[in-house]
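[audit] Reproducing an earlier prediction to check determinism. Same input, same settings, fresh worker. If the tokens differ from the archived copy the diff job will pick it up downstream; this log only records the rerun itself.
[audit] input (188 residues):
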Amino acid sequence: MTTTRESPLAAALALAALTACYGGSASERAAASSTPNAAAAQTVATASASTAASATVAAGSATNAATQDGRAVFQRTCATCHQQTGQGIRGAFPPLAASPFVTGDTDRLIRLVLHGLTGQIVVGGARYNNVMPPWKTLSDAELAAVLTYVRSSFGNTAGPVTAQGVARQRAATAARTTMWTVAEIERP
């Protein structure tokens, strides 16, 4: 059997769908219990409830796996500049910890990472005037994982980024050939 990194999440979603299909309403369950196959229907409903609990655990495992993947992507692509601690290098590379660029609008962060950033930026009261390279060579899943990791690490408590969100921003900005400036990226 071949598995992929996304299989726990796919399994969780499939199990949730099965649970929704077999759960039914109270009247449907009552009707099922009055049929000769009532025991089978009840077994399916019980199994579905059990699988729903397993699906929740599997989804949590998928989130943990994404965090681990995000950490690996961070270490290979981001840590040199932003450091393992997410504190950056004062005057050269801004911190990711408590950065409104990291914890703010998800779509803006995705666009920034996809196409890079150039020019002066102020983070935590300090000015930075360097270049962040574009990372559009990373897959949607890798970008989602690393951005989720950064948004939930270094004291940050922002929500996750999805591969679908990355794909949407990638498609919306596909014609872009230059890095963003701060003035451009801050526009809604």
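[audit] rerun output stored. Observation attached for the diff report: The radius of gyration is 22 Å.
[audit] end
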